[in-house]
Amino acid sequence: MTNLSLSETSRPWRRPFRAAVAAVAVVCTVVACSPVSNSGGDTQSGDSQSAGQDSFGTPADPAAVKQGGKLVIALSAEPDALDPTLSRSLYSRYVFQAMCQKLYDVNEQAQVVPQLATALPTTSGDGRTVTIPLRQGARFADGTPFDSAAVKATLQRHLTNSRSARKSELGPIDGVDTPDAQTVVLRLKQPFAPLLGALADRAGMIMSAKALQSLGDDFASAPVCVGPFKFAKRVPQNSIDVVKDPNYYEADKVHLDAISWRILSDASIRAANLRSGDAQVADSISTQDVASLRQESSVSVLQSQSLGYQGLTINIGNVDGVGTAPKPINRPLAQNAKVRQAFEHAIDRKALVDAVFNGIHTAACSPISPASPFSSPEAQTCPAHDPAKAKQLLSEAGVQTPYTVTMLASNTPDTLRLAQALQSMLKDGGFDLKINPVEYSSLLDEQDRGNFELLQLGWSGRIDPDANITNFVGTGASQNVSGYSNPQLDTLLTQARQSGDIEERKKLYGQVVTLLQQDDALIYLYRQRNLTAVSKQLQGLQVFPDGVIRAAFAGFTK
């Protein structure tokens, strides 16, 4: 989850999702679902500075960039564990992009493309056997060969580690076979539509079997993968450094000597470091700084609509920690859905994003974008802002007003502005919101332990809706920090995972959203635009709709 932040007026952000329709067609090759056509509309590349226009960045021109140099990226929050099995933050994905390649990746059109695999998977007629061809000649940073045995070791760890955040993403894998060094065969208990999307994210990041054997649960202390760069050092709360890996199979395409991520949680300080030249990239720039940075002749602003969401998670059963059986919590907010519904009715999403984010972000009531091929009117239904209704529901629940709720939130300026706006807004609905700001990595720890009543976090998003939903609201799922459990919802999510028909999945996800809004364990607020500021001294840095900063093949202009 991320502490990024989102608005509902401009529509240029639809274009990446039109391209995502093509990605759905690709996913369908794995699960035998009906193909869909691309509805057209090209994405914009380059460094356009016009407000609202997608700008992903362009690849570096090898003839125009220097060889060598260290790239410094000012990062808005500290990544969590640099372990693909355990990681759950967007910021770790930035680092992984440079040093831990995946079986598959996502391009700027949100299409799945091979990376460590050599082609898209082939699937048996019953959808239960998936065969993946692997790249030959690749080596891990420790010099050991990348092969099917390493893929098997990685996937088995994802599926069996007690703290794994990948298990529910990989679904019903029943076994992993390695008929030869360059082929992996996944055996499934039943068809699983989201599989390819999962393998294009952390579940598809392959780790060195030698490192896994020697480091075990301490893999994050010295992670070893296949990538353009390899891990060098980490100073907690300060920085993470990687250096060029000579073992990388396309090392001649890597221009930089090193990349350093510097943790600077204040957006104004990140912008100042960019202006001074102490950093060449600043992630998650504040919507307060966008206009002024666009006026800088030495800076480009990359932007695109996120695939994810920002929201509020209510603890309704996480007593013993994420992944454990839900237990009753003796608070009206946890016990009574009417209190949670009242909380949602007290929120004016449009006013919120306009006031806090200058209308740059987009109000949202669902984990499914309205431009997604899986969207429907049911999936986009939005509970009305109605403070009177909120007070009525609180009265029906027997709750005295003002009802006090304490919210855990990251201590970044943008998040605190959001929290304070919510605090003011909720008063009219009968709530007294208390804000407890903490550092981002501490927030992740507290949410996992269940040490919260309400928290504000979000998700950077994936191309398949299952990856934006099931992990967070499915019973016992690896990121269900709410402790939410609804057997009817679980049945719908399972049916959607197994269905090979897009229209059927669309219908099921509409029913899923209806249930989610009845129970309100997770209240969706808005979708953020990915906003990244880049020095024009740098070429080749790109940020796609998945929100990941792609720096591995960047270089400094000659």
Automatic annotation (TrEMBL):
It comes from the Bacteria. InterPro entries: Peptide/Ni-bd, SBP_5, SBP_5_dom. Residues 111-478 form the Solute-binding protein family domain. The keyword Cell membrane does not apply. Residues 37-57 have a biased composition (Low complexity). Residues 37-63 are annotated as: Disordered. Pfam families: SBP_bac_5 (PF00496). GO terms for molecular function: peptide transmembrane transporter activity. Keywords: Signal. GO terms for biological process: peptide transport. One of its GO terms (cellular component) is ATP-binding cassette (ABC) transporter complex. This is ABC transporter substrate-binding protein. It comes from Micromonospora acroterricola.
